[in-house]
Amino acid sequence: MDLSKVSNVELLNRLEKLARTERKITHLILWHINEVESRRLFAELGFDSMFKYLTKHLGYGEDSAYRRLQAARLLKQVPAVAEKLEEGSLNLTQLTQVQKCIKQEIKIGNRVETAKTEQILEDIQNKSSFETLKYLAQEFDQPIQTHEIRKPQQDNSVRLEITFSEDQMEILEKAKSPLSHVLPEENWADLFTHLAKKHIQKELGKSNPNQKSPKMPDQTALPRNPASSTKRAHIKLTLKRELLRNAGYCCEYINPKTKKKCDSVYQLQIDHRLPLAKGGSDKKENLRVLCRTHNLLAAKQWGLSSR
After folding, report:
1. In the chain, which residue ranges form alpha helices assigned H by DSSP?
2. Does the pTM exceed 0.70?
3. What does the angle CA 136 – CA 140 – CA 145 come to, to the nearest 5 degrees?
4. Do residues 268 and 246 touch, judged by C-beta distance below 8 A?
5. Torsions phi, psi of 292, nearest 5?
6. pLDDT (tens digit per residue) in 61-78
């Protein structure tokens, strides 16, 4: 399918319509899964479980089949879930997380009333997977795991499971966001390794043979508009810090249609509202904080090269 000649407006309209259709089809699939499972039709086709039927016969991946099966069982208990799925305020991952918690409660002898389940589903609407897990952990009073688990793997890598307090996690997030220019993958293992190498370099000096970490920029010395090659004066560090503080340390781009702020903390850059190439200045009122994506978008809208 060649979509290169489709206008931006038409392309977005098509995708939004397809997303709505996909959500509607998803909740219809869940109803059918429930009915096929209740009639045990999978057995007549030679499968010993609904999961095997979904993976072996319908071709779902194991994770996809598991999510649909768990969501379908929750839908059977709370039919109102169908409407939430169709409108997009709940998704399969959230329903799976809720169903897993309910199964665990039942396993230890605790009954979860339908009214409570309905309230939980109401509370987690429009939440991310991380926010949903946090809510469920508190709602079901799940025990806090504090022990560290270190597992060797066949390729000599090590899987490390560790618990951070809320304050510790906040500190790590603050370190991670400014380093997104150096560590674009946003990988926690890369972050820990990078910070450790910087500490080793500080303690042992740059001559340390194991020191391979890339040069770490000052956290507030953010790149500016990459699209403009016009020579400019150096923006003072104090001004950069003030701009970041005023922006709440996140992207200030606002969707002109929805009026929703981007709020990304990934690869933040100092941008000129009116580019220098178009007669703009380095004065505070002409500067703002944008993530790299919206910085490049602004450059494109001004007709400037993004290279």
Report:
1. 8-39, 41-44, 50-52, 62-77, 81-87, 92-107, 114-123, 129-139, 166-176, 188-204, 237-246, 292-301
2. no
3. 85
4. no
5. -60, -40
6. 999 999 999 999 999 999
